Amino acid sequence: MENIIIKHYTPHVRVKDSVPRVMGDVVIALLPAILASAAVYGYYPLLVILTSVVSAVVTEFLFSAIFFKKYDSVLNLSAVVTGILLALMLAPFTPLYVVAFGGAMAIIFGKLIYSGLGRNRFNPAIVGREFMTVFFSTVMASGTIWYNEEAVQITGVKLFGFLGNFSFFNNLDSLILKSSGAIGEYSVLLLVLGGVYLIYRDRISWHIPVTLFITVFVGMMISRFTGINAGISLGGLMLCGIYMATDMPTSSSTPHGKIYYGIMMGIVVFVFWIFKIRNETLSYAILVLNGFVPIINDTFTPLLFGEDAEEVQGEKIGRGVVYAFVIIGVAIVLSLLHHFGLVKYLLFIYIIYSTVMLIRSKEIK
Q1: 133 near 127, Cβ under 8 Å?
Q2: What are phi and psi of 178, to 5 degrees?
Q3: Taking a C-beta distance cutoff of 8 angstroms, is the pair 139, 95 a contact?
Q4: Of the residues 81, 82, 163, 358, which has the maximum number of CB atoms within 10 A of its CB?
């Protein structure tokens, strides 16, 4: 009789963890950044956050109740987190009806179209933002939604001012608090502290953020010598790298896979710099890598007992290199679509495809 080898991976369940607890920790980690936005612009960013959260939660409840006959899905707080993350990527004076639209689209086409939490392929908050960019392009590109001099409560801090009026000390102050950028970008320090809290609580690991940040930093150094414009918001990098790139359903689940995921995301960011993509750099990079997560997980599975380490590692490296070229190729194609204004058609195709897949999945009751 032929011997058949069946590979099993040991499951690990931590009974103290639950989805509401995990999501609650994310909210706690983001709360200081939310308060910082209120310190800068008062109630305006809070209205954006509240609108986004309410829209996401209401959409989650109605869609789940009508199509899936589930009435308690909002209790896991995932819709709340999605709403907060979406709002933190937006300008403080984004019209609330546009925000509400984004919150609804984030839940429907970023999460529920895949039949619920944990099955989604793409980060819901970023999906919602891309819907806003496509369907309200004029509003999202307007400079008036980013700054209002009359609404500014505080422009920054001067904790290092006594050391002298030098750019280095001014930059240190801007890491603590500044008044420019998206709602979640006003305090790099608070974003990092929130990330440390999530690592301490074992909600995320260091692999993706650290490898992403290092790769982006290397890319910036290369850009200095090649004349490439590597403009990027440090606050935006922290927000996306710590809180969005680490989204559990849409990121790699193994240590080596996470390292590869973070490095490739940084490389994709560099590719977008080459093609002079600015505002969508991080969003596009995360979405591109989201699409390759199943392949990355399959490639970087843990070594099983009895497997030849050298042979398996060699195969993994080979596959990783091949997939790296594929990922870069996808990034180049997306860059070209962006420059020719064709990304919106890609979104339309996604809407049709995901809707058809939901109908065929027989999840609708």
Answers
A1: no
A2: -145, 170
A3: yes
A4: 82
C-alpha of 332 from chain center? 20
More confident residue, 281 or 157: 281
Nearest to 275, CA basis, from 213, 318, 339, 219? 339
Report which of 287, 314, 291 is spatially closest to residue 303, judged by C-alpha positions. Answer: 314
Burial of 8 (0-12, 13-18, 19+ CB in 10 A): exposed
Residue-wise pLDDT tens digits, 104-121: 999 999 999 988 778 899
Please give the Cα distance from 338 to 157 (Å, whole number): 37
- What gap in Å lies between CA 65 and CA 57, rounded to an integer? 12
Q: CA–CA separation, 119 vs 113, rounded Å?
A: 9
CB 240 within 8 A of CB 286: yes
Distance of alpha carbon 292 from alpha carbon 223, whole angstroms? 26
Q: How far apart are CA 364 and CA 73, in angstroms?
A: 15
Instruction: Output the six-digit token pair for 320.
Output: 């990783």
Q: How far apart are CA 167 and CA 170, in angstroms?
A: 5
pLDDT in tens, 169-201: 567 878 888 888 999 999 999 999 999 999 999
In contact, 45 and 89? CB cutoff 8 Å: no
Q: How many CA atoms are closer than 13 Å to the CA of 109, on its beta-carbon side?
A: 22
